[in-house]
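Colleagues,

For the teaching module next term, I've prepared a clean inverse folding example: a structure given as tokens, and then the sequence designed for it. I'd like students to try predicting residues themselves before seeing the answer, so please don't circulate the second half yet.
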């Protein structure tokens, strides 16, 4: 609808020698006001100091020469200069044919014009199984990438990790200490170390696969049943390498397996250590020093953020020589833009919100445009049942893992529930609702609409009704019932919804739209006989084919929406 009106409004504005750069179109708040409305006359009249209603009248007159009266059945000027448009059945009937012709390609757009966009998500260091918090960010990031791809962007999915910091050394030392315990040593395991049973599993695996386990403990420091001291960032602790290396390899493989259960993968895995090897880290410090934005104090390196409008200066490199998160993050974002991405999406947890402005200030100080980077923050997840917080099995870790949640309710439900709410709001994952297998479960409600169409198709085959697949052989003008037209109208909004959700990066709005599709389909199904049900109320073969086509159109839109959400489109339930 918007595309049709935009073309004709553009032509009308040009005929009146008016600018065409902005043509706002929106849904009226009241159905009685039509299908679409524009405020273009109000905007242009103000700039030209004209009467907006008089300008609206000129526009309507110009449009009357070009629009098809069977498509736009009414153009009405309201208030000070609003123009309301009402569409007739002809446009919707034509669009249904387009939906059926495009099939699984319906909704794919060129609006993005191949723009190079990078979406970074998950980015969990390989220190343990993924949490449900990681899972929410993973699903949101993957779905945003899907939306951007469908909207015509050239999308790269990226995973950023650090396998060289203090966190990883603590991981390696955790495995070393558990290995000592497996070999019989008795001591209290440090509270600040990684506690999960998975650490002991990794230690056993290392001992079992090393031909001479004693070779892991040749350094006297490796046999001490106490944490290693990490006094200096560059301190040599070579004996930790085999422990750290197997932990990193095992946990990373586990992370990738978990993500694959949700249909998630990445195009690029970027190691933070590469920023050090390439000299990018030192280059950032040197550039900031050259601009008098970095200085030494008390053995540390500070970022002079107060010169950039921030409240206080922040540490870039600690006295130990260890960089804070800000330094590699500045270097990493500069690297992203250097690789030619014109837009960068960071899908990060709310714990990053404090440092993100500092990183953007650093990026700007390096001469890059911080507005090219957008933070898509995902809030915390709480697992509940009957309103109470649930403690699930935590053998593998001292927190609820994403794998455990998938085991409990299934991948489709996990993805859908993570997407139901705006990413910026905290969510309660209701296990009781998630485990229901009826229409009360929101994901099943949508999937049931798809399965219902498949059931109708099977029933048609059983009755010997040959379903026509060529839209040219179907008389869509027979679809005139209110429930038929409302369903078609809803289906035609899919492509615009995809672009809108991609621009706003709000996957939950796609779910709202798909719920509308399912609701309108169920209304159509209950009020119109798709297949003849009663001899006293026969349905003509032509109307049967038209209604079957409409049902198939709904099925196609639902399936395409499910593909973006990353959930299955079942034919039976």
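(Answer key — instructors only)
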């Amino acid at each position: 609808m918007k595309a049709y009106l935009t073309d004709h409004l553009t032509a009308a504005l040009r005929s009146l020698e008016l600018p065409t750069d902005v043509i706002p179109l929106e849904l009226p708040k009241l159905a009685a006001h039509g299908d679409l409305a524009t405020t273009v006359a109000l905007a242009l009249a103000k700039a030209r100091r004209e009467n907006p209603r008089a300008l609206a009248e000129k526009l309507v007159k110009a449009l009357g020469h070009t629009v098809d009266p069977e498509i736009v059945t009414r153009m009405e000027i309201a208030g000070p200069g609003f123009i309301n448009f009402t569409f007739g059945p002809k446009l919707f009937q034509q669009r249904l044919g387009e939906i059926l012709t495009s099939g699984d390609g319906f909704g794919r757009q060129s609006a993005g014009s191949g723009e190079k966009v990078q979406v970074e998500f998950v980015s969990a260091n390989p220190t343990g199984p993924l949490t449900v918090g990681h899972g929410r960010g993973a699903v949101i990031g993957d779905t945003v990438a899907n939306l951007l791809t469908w909207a015509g962007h050239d999308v790269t999915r990226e995973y950023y990790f650090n396998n060289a910091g203090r966190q990883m050394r603590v991981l390696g030392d955790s495995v070393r200490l558990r290995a000592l315990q497996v070999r019989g040593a008795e001591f209290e395991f440090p509270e600040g170390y990684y506690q999960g049973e998975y650490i002991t599993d990794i230690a056993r695996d290392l001992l079992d696969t090393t031909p001479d386990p004693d070779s892991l403990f040749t350094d006297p420091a490796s046999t001490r049943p106490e944490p290693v001291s990490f006094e200096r960032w560059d301190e040599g602790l070579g004996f930790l390498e085999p422990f750290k290396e197997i932990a990193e390899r095992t946990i990373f493989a586990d992370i990738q397996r978990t993500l694959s259960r949700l249909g998630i993968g990445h195009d690029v895995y970027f190691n933070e250590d590469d920023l050090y090897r390439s000299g990018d880290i030192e280059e950032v410090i040197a550039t900031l020093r050259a601009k008098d934005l970095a200085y030494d104090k008390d053995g540390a390196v500070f970022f002079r953020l107060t010169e950039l409008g921030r409240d206080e200066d922040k540490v870039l490199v600690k006295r130990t020589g260890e960089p804070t998160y800000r330094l590699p993050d500045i270097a990493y974002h500069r690297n992203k833009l250097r690789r030619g991405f014109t837009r960068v999406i960071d899908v990060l947890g709310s714990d990053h919100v404090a440092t993100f402005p500092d990183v953007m200030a650093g990026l700007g100080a390096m001469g890059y445009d911080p507005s090219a980077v957008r933070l898509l923050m995902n809030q915390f997840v709480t697992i509940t049942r009957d309103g109470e917080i649930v403690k699930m099995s935590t053998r593998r870790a001292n927190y609820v893992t994403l794998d455990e949640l998938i085991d409990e309710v299934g991948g489709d439900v996990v993805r859908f529930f993570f997407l139901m709410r705006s990413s910026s709001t905290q969510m309660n994952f209701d296990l009781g609702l998630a485990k229901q297998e009826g229409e009360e479960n929101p994901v099943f409600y949508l999937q049931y609409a798809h399965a219902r169409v498949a059931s109708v198709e099977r029933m048609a085959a059983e009755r010997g009704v040959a379903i026509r697949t060529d839209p040219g052989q179907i008389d869509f003008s027979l679809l005139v019932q209110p429930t038929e037209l409302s369903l078609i109208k809803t289906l035609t909004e899919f492509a615009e919804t995809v672009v809108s959700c991609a621009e706003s990066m709000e996957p939950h709005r796609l779910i709202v739209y798909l719920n509308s599709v399912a609701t309108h389909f169920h209304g159509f199904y209950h009020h119109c006989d798709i297949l003849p049900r009663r001899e006293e109320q026969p349905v003509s073969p032509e109307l049967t084919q038209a209604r079957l086509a409409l049902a198939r159109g709904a099925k196609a839109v639902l399936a395409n929406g499910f593909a973006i959400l990353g959930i299955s489109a079942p034919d039976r339930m």
